Amino acid sequence: DFLVSFSLDITRTVPESDQNNLARQLANFNCLRITEMMYHPSDGSDLEYIELQNIGADELNITGVRLGDGIAFTFSAMTLAAGEYVVIVNNTPVFQARYGMDIRIAGEYEGNLDNGGETILLQLPAPFEAAILRIEYSDAWYPSTDGQGYALVIRDVLAPRDAWNR
Predict the structure, then answer these.
(1) Mean pLDDT for the chain?
(2) Could you tell me the CA-to-CA distances from 110 to 19, 61, 73, 143 in Å, in that order?
């Protein structure tokens, strides 16, 4: 009889560039929020938009951050200063004709927001699969947001993530 025992010791050194990227993604996870959604404008889907905000105290690099499920969008090279807002829109010229040229627009998303409600996923850049925020909105929440010209707006941007679904 004999006994064989194996032991495996692994040390992984993470390159500094990977550590910086991980720190950047943790900042996005902690500080990037969807703060407003116009999902059923009274004048048609061309006026739909989603607003995001950096709720942190430091600049965020949101390059590669994605929105999915109901719509599709990936942020190109972009930073947001502390407290800064940005919108993604369905139709840039129509949005600017209604709301003016002073609002920062990141681009146009693919698809349309569902007038009856759906899930919107705010996600870290690839290859990270972590959700920053998953919102399941409903047109029954506030009837004035269902085709009457008002947007859904979060009351407290510092609320826990699960509050966005309430």
Answers:
(1) 86
(2) 32, 22, 6, 26
